[in-house]
């Protein structure tokens, strides 16, 4: 799938990384496919060093104590059409089952927490071929055992899933930014219809 984005011009520097103006350090959640640069970004920010896992089919996942520690790297368990269980790491080519995804509630009262604005999801989505080449290099070095059987098709499926998830979050009023190059500047989604999510 293709996400239409535009580079954000009004930026602030947070520990050497460009973020949209107004983003606060403690809002940031970093996600994206394996090999997209998440660990490098976490290290540059001197952020929380441990990876987190969130099952997006669990109600109230946004209240997880794991998300108390930010910025941090987050992996998602995602439901897919035709699969009974959530999937993480071995991405199918079928579309995301959005009917099984829970999203934070919209703020309806003044004193309520605005959960959809509480986090900023920074999706690292460099070109599929770039991720594939990086993971092949890591496989040769033996530094990441999970890369031993990497294929371009596997990387394509994972990138497509994260693009679809980013689009879904964006369409539902959550704060989402895309980086389409390794260590690139953040971009804003401007064409939410360019997705295969119903």
Low-confidence stretches: 193-198
Could you say which structural class the secondary elements and strand pairing correspond to?
alpha/beta
Count of structural domains: 1
**Count of extended strands:** 9
Helix content: 10-25%
Question: Would you kindly provide a written description of the structure presented here, covering whatever features stand out?
Answer:
The protein is α/β, with parallel strands linked by helices. The protein has one domain: Rossmann fold, CATH 3.40.50. Helix content is 23%, strand content 19%. It contains four helices and nine strands; from the N terminus they run ββββαββαβααββ. The strands form three sheets. A five-stranded parallel sheet has the order 5-6-4-7-8. Strands 1-9 form a two-stranded antiparallel ribbon. It has a two-stranded antiparallel ribbon with strand order 2-3. A hairpin with a 2-residue loop joins strand 2 and strand 3. Helix 3 crosses helix 4. The C terminus is likely disordered.
């Amino acid at each position: 799938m293709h996400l239409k984005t535009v580079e954000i011009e009004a930026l602030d520097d947070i520990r050497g990384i460009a973020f949209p103006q107004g983003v606060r350090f403690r809002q940031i959640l970093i996600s994206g496919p394996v090999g997209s640069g998440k660990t490098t970004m976490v290290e540059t920010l001197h952020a929380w060093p441990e990876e987190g896992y969130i099952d997006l089919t669990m109600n109230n996942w946004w209240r997880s104590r794991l998300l108390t520690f930010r910025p941090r790297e987050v992996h998602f368990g995602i439901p897919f059409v035709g699969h009974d269980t959530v999937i993480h790491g071995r991405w199918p080519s079928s579309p995301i089952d959005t009917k099984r995804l829970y999203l934070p509630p919209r703020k309806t009262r003044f004193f309520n927490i605005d959960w959809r604005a509480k986090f900023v999801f920074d999706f690292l989505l460099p070109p599929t071929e770039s991720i594939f080449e990086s993971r092949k290099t890591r496989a040769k070095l033996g530094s990441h055992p999970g890369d031993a059987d990497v294929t371009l098709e596997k990387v394509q499926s994972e990138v497509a899933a994260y693009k679809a998830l980013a689009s879904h979050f964006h369409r539902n009023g959550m704060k989402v930014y895309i980086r389409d190059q390794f260590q690139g500047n953040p971009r804003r989604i401007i064409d939410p219809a360019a997705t295969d999510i119903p």
